[in-house]
Amino acid sequence: MFNAQPKFITSATKLEECPPAGLPEICFAGRSNVGKSSLINTLLNKKNIARTSNVPGKTQQMNYYKLGEECFFVDLPGYGYAKVPKKERERWGKSIRDYLMDRESLKLILHVVDVRHDPSQLDEDFFYWMGMNEKPFAVVLSKADKISRNKVNQAKAKVRRIMKEMNIEVPILPYSASSREGIDEIKKLITE
Ligand code: GTP
Ligand code: MG
After folding, report:
1. Whose CA is closest to atom 28 on ligand 1?
2. What HEC string does 50-96 produce?
3. DSSP H or E stretch at residue 179
4. Contact residues of ligand 1, CB 6 A cut-off
5. Nearest 5°: CA angle at 89, between 82 and 133?
6. pTM greater than 0.90
7. How far apart are CA 89 and CA 81, in angstroms?
8. Rounded distance, CA 181 to CA 187, Å?
9. Strand partners for 28
């Protein structure tokens, strides 16, 4: 799957604009600037197929990438970005909720959290909501290169504790775009 030449397909602003459902989809969700687009690039071994930026709010639409004839990767806009006007944010929130709830070909949601920060209230709401709806998801702890291994393990334990309180059990995968640490585990999860 990861050997196929990835192709950008389309940008959608709502569920109705997504390509016809068929191929299995893996989407990348989480706050702005946590590294969702970077994770796609790292998985696909491409520098900039998904556009990244050190300024939050880079990805503004649901961007579809096709891997051969095997699956779609869907890069979602981040949430919690204060500079986006409230109206816009609400519209976005709704589109993404519709997508996550109703897209039948969605097979895996990778929820990205910056390993340096505790999950925000929005992250926790997201975990809860995914758990309640029995959605297939996993947590990726990004930017693991920025802190010590010890701290990474603490962050992982913390997320695991939060999940446990909600009775949710999902993979929690630390990873770094710069060192590529953890990328094989994420690939394995996707392939499975
Ligand atoms: P939005 O599209 O705004 O929601 O952001 P995003 O989640 O797609 O984040 P993006 O991939 O654009 O990355 C944000 C910034 O974090 C960029 O400057 C990246 O280079 C940086 N970054 C992403 N992943 C890592 C990582 O694993 N390690 C380090 N050191 N930097 C990273
Ligand atoms: Mg992005």
Report:
1. 143
2. CCCCCCCCCCCCEEEEEECCCEEEEECCCECCCCCCHHHHHHHHHHH
3. none
4. 32-38, 52-54, 56-59, 77-78, 142-143, 145-146, 176-178
5. 115
6. yes
7. 8
8. 12
9. 75, 110
Q: Which domains does the chain have, with CATH numbers?
A: 6-191 (3.40.50.300)
Q: How many other CB atoms sit within 10 Å of the CB of residue 181?
A: 15
CB of 59 closer than 8 Å to CB of 78: yes
Its ipTM equals 0.98
pLDDT per residue over 113-169, tens digit each?
A: 999 999 999 999 999 999 999 999 999 999 999 999 999 999 999 999 999 999 999
Q: Can you read off the two tokens belonging to residue 171?
A: 């993979």
Determine the Cα–Cα distance for residues 174 and 150; give it in Å rounded to an integer: 12
